[in-house]
């Protein structure tokens, strides 16, 4: 998908004032105000992305260059499809050599160049179904999943880390040698057990926070590159 002027929220726009409405909670008014005045939300509407989250993946790939033409990508928890749109454009899966398989329990509207599987990626048969669609192992596994917030920091951290661990287990099952895993975590990074596993199976593990990730958000991303199927005894390195 083409990115025109103003990508990454570059264009200036007039601020929209949101007034409190009868029956609307203050928290809802604040959320609406943030959405209407978020430059990434505005850019997504202009450029045809399904979610502002698309710009997080664009920034990560602009810096680390892991989405290359011809690669096979799995997008876990893909709804509404912003990351799948970016992946399809970067690996050239729409009529080109790449391939993108999106997985979610919630159905999403079709995306050009993307094959969608409506299933639970933690199900025992999920990796077989994905490999069947890919015609073999994946080169990249992406996950921008987040459990609904409870407002309790520790609980939210545990829930999102549980999703990340499940995504990492899935990646180890389906990735090809030299593959890439990119997933959302919360500030504080990956927990020790998960980090130890990633360092065992990947040559380099980074924690990164793209600018498109809201400043007040605790979210970060773990980017693990250089997958080793054997899980070599020599540990991988952690890069800031």
Shape designation: globular
Rg, Å, rounded:
18 Å
Please state roughly what percent of the residues sit in beta strands, choosing from under 5%, 5-15%, 15-25%, 25-35%, 35-45% or over 45%: 15-25%
Largest sheet: 8 strands, mixed
Roughly what is the average pLDDT, rounded to an integer? 83
Q: Gap between N and C termini, in Å? A: 30 Å
Which stretches are poorly predicted, pLDDT < 50 over at least 5 residues? 1-7, 26-36
Strand order of the largest sheet: 3-2-1-4-5-7-6-8
Structural class: alpha/beta
Q: What's the total count of β strands?
A: 8
Task: Determine the fraction of residues in helical runs and give it as a percent range.
Answer: 25-40%
Put simply, the count of helices is 7
H and E order: HHHEHEEHEHEHEEE
What does this structure look like?
It is a single chain. The protein has 7 helices and 8 strands, in the order αααβαββαβαβαβββ. Helix 3 packs parallel to helix 4.
